[in-house]
Design goal:
heterodimer; A: about 350 residues; alpha+beta; Rossmann fold; OB fold (Dihydrolipoamide Acetyltransferase, E2P); 2 domains; six-stranded mixed sheet; five-stranded antiparallel sheet; 8 helices; B: about 290 residues; mainly alpha; MetI-like fold; 14 helices; about 75% helix; about 0% strand; globular; binds adenosine-5'-triphosphate; binds magnesium ion
Chain lengths: ~350, ~290
């Protein structure tokens, strides 16, 4: 088991800067998610940690040792590829046992370990099949079994759940987390699915265009995003330009054209910085619609469109020139498009962000 | 339901019919003529008598000279095939794995020699190995020898000539196989603890077997059936079975004997293909490309 550290890692492919200046610590036995849109450099980071790609500059430390010059096969990592990369000419049992034969495991132990690995990924009895004879989701689980059976120091997972259907995906999510807790392996998990990241991770590294945007606990990145990108990538939110008109120990007082003054708790303004300009971030589910007479702290809004989702409705609203989104539980029937409603926001659960490009 | 089943049954034959027709017209019928000719009797130079007799066949079966030629041919074919496999794998691997953007250029280079006549390519070795050739020139320039060394017209030059001509077939076959392999497989093996060589041996090599096997079969059959290369580059004892056919037909003008020998070679090479496909599971090869 080992702690993984990236120090000033850069990686360019010709003119493309796939990873810029990444400084990330993956704590021993932790579950860290690399989260970001397609092409932001997640796979590239995994490849560099595993040794399949060399960083253009910077150091990679595993268990405190610099591994830049350690060959791939001596790093003892389990890597699950985005496309599984199972060996088509080998049976499932041979696939899983592949890494064991380089570790001097006795024959009888191999069979037992393969068996156990298949149990862990909940696919017992497929030993003698070939990868082509399994579904995509099953292949993905075999790839996971092949990676964990070698008891790696670090487990690298490149979107290992992407091929599963929604139900199996949630099951495997829980299962994967349980496996990780049980074997206590440092795990680096790549995904572009935010709910997966929020549900599974000890820490989340949010990336965009090769840059690390924010590193933090799930609730940290969700509630106090460091940048507009993080705010909009995780969940639906409204970002309103705001003036900082006061701060004290309890919070920051922001003034927006739409909602007047709002007091945001201090811990939710951690990334705001000095200066008198910022943004107020209101999650779509923290913006509440109501009818009836206006109250002092509510704002009038016109519903432009309603997106009915069962227990929830997503409203597209207009306040003056500003468009807003709100996601509310429905009691009875949703508000109709075209009607005017009162909007209130949960100030305690809003955040203050720096203005873009500061 | 049953009618649609039938139409599905017929479709492959319908699609195959043009090629079957071509094969019948261009291969089966001419071969039948050759078979018929092998029973004719040669009376004098270019004079044959229509007959049904087994004189030619019994001569081929009993005369040790022909057996020697068969062994020589098989031996040389095996040598050329093995050398071509080893020498061809390396460039094929390189072309398949290179990150070079204009890969097609490398493939073009590979087929570029086909634009020059095979005879001319073979003859060109005389300028390298011959008494006035490049190698002798170099040796003399370096003062290694006074008189030209005799490098030409032996088995070595024949092998060189064959490999020169047939290597592209081998490379292309192996390349196609390698190209179809998921590029993450070798890295996967590496992360599981295999050294580069182990990863190659355990993953890439077995997965490229179909191409390698097809290339080997092709080179073997092509070598076994050729006569021009030994004729140009070989000495008096470097003849293959094909040269005997050439002699019988062109020099001795004994067509019935030539026909008999041709058919013998066809049977021999056909036997090799059948045995080989049994051994390697040639019909299994196509599976690797799925
Ligand atoms: N071998 C390569 N050669 C050139 N460019 C590359 C190479 N590998 C990756 N890139 C580029 O580096 C950037 C990051 O790629 P990477 O594969 O790490 O993205 P990703 O975050 O894993 O995306 P996805 O979610 O789609 O898998 C992309 O712009 C990609 O085009
Ligand atoms: Mg990726």
């Amino acid at each position: 088991m080992a702690r993984v550290e990236l120090v000033d890692i850069q990686k360019s492919f010709g003119a493309v800067k796939a990873v810029r200046n990444a400084n990330i610590v993956f704590e021993d036995a932790s579950f860290t998610t690399l989260l970001g849109p397609s092409g932001c450099g997640k796979t590239t980071i995994l490849r560099m940690i595993s040794g399949l790609a060399d960083p253009s500059s910077g150091d990679i430390l595993i268990g405190g040792n610099r591994v830049n010059d350690v060959p791939i096969h001596k790093r003892n990592l389990g890597l699950v590829f985005q496309n599984y990369a199972l060996f088509p000419h080998r049976t499932i049992a041979e696939n899983i046992a592949f890494g064991l034969k380089y570790r001097g495991v006795a024959k009888s132990d191999v069979t037992r370990k393969v068996h156990k690995a298949l149990d862990i990924v909940r696919l017992p009895g497929v030993e003698d099949r070939y990868p082509q004879q399994l579904s995509g989701g099953q292949q993905q689980r075999i790839a996971l079994a092949r990676a964990i059976v070698i008891e790696p120091d670090v487990l690298l997972l490149d979107e290992p759940l992407s091929a599963l259907d929604a139900n199996l995906r949630e099951d495997m999510r829980v299962e994967l987390k349980a496996i990780q807790d049980r074997i206590g392996v440092t795990t680096i998990f790549v995904t572009h699915d935010q709910s997966e990241a929020l549900a599974m991770s000890d820490r989340i590294v949010v990336m965009s265009a090769g840059r690390v945007e924010q590193i933090g606990d799930p609730d940290e990145v969700y509630n106090t995003p460091a940048s507009e990108f993080v705010a909009s990538f995780l969940g639906a939110s409204n970002l309103l330009p705001a003036r900082v008109i006061g701060r004290d120990a309890d919070g920051v007082v922001l003034e927006t054209a739409e909602f007047g003054t709002t007091i945001v708790p201090a811990n939710r303004a951690a990334t705001l910085g000095d200066g008198d300009r910022g943004q107020l971030m209101v999650r779509a589910e923290k913006l509440f619609l109501s009818d009836g007479p206006a109250t002092p702290d509510s704002t009038q809004a016109v519903i432009e469109a309603v997106d009915y989702q069962g227990q929830l409705a997503r409203y597209f609203l207009r306040v003056g020139d500003t468009q807003l989104q709100a996601i509310n539980m429905i009691t009875g029937r949703p508000f109709a498009a075209g009607s005017t409603v009162n909007l209130t926001l949960a100030a305690n659960e809003c955040s203050a962000l720096p203005l873009k490009d500061t | 339901m049953s009618s649609s089943d039938q139409s599905i049954d017929k479709r492959p034959w319908l699609l195959l019919s043009p090629s079957l027709m071509a094969i019948t017209l261009l291969v089966v019928i001419p071969m039948a003529f050759i078979l018929v000719y092998s029973f004719y009797e040669n009376i004098d130079l270019a004079v044959d008598k229509v007959a049904f007799q087994f004189g030619n066949w019994s001569e081929v079966m009993t005369d040790g000279y022909y057996r020697t030629a068969i062994w020589k041919t098989l031996r040389l074919s095996v040598i050329v095939t093995v050398l071509a496999a080893v020498l061809g794998y390396i460039p094929a691997y390189f072309i398949a794995m290179t990150k070079f953007r204009d890969k097609w250029l490398l493939l073009l280079l590979l087929i570029l020699p086909f634009w020059i006549s095979f005879i001319i390519r073979t003859l060109s070795w005389i300028h390298i190995f011959g008494n006035q050739g490049a190698l002798n020139g170099l040796f003399q320039l370096l003062g290694l020898t006074d008189a030209p060394l005799s490098l030409m017209y032996n088995e070595f030059t024949v092998i060189v000539g064959f490999i020169h001509v047939f290597l592209p077939y081998m490379i292309l076959n192996i390349y196609v196989s390698l190209e179809g392999i998921d590029e993450n497989l070798e890295p996967a093996a590496r992360t599981l603890g295999a050294t580069p060589w182990q990863a190659f041996r355990e993953v890439t090599l077995p997965l490229s077997m179909p191409g390698l096997a097809a290339g080997c079969l092709l080179v073997f059959v092509l070598t076994g059936g050729s006569y021009v290369t030994p004729l140009i580059l070989g000495g008096p004892s470097d003849f293959l079975f094909g040269n005997l056919i050439y002699d019988a037909i062109v020099t001795e003008l004994n067509w019935p004997m030539g026909a008999t020998l041709s058919f013998t070679l066809l049977l021999l090479l056909g036997l090799v293909v059948v045995l080989y496909s049994r051994l390697m599971g040639l019909n299994q090869l196509s599976k690797a490309f799925k």
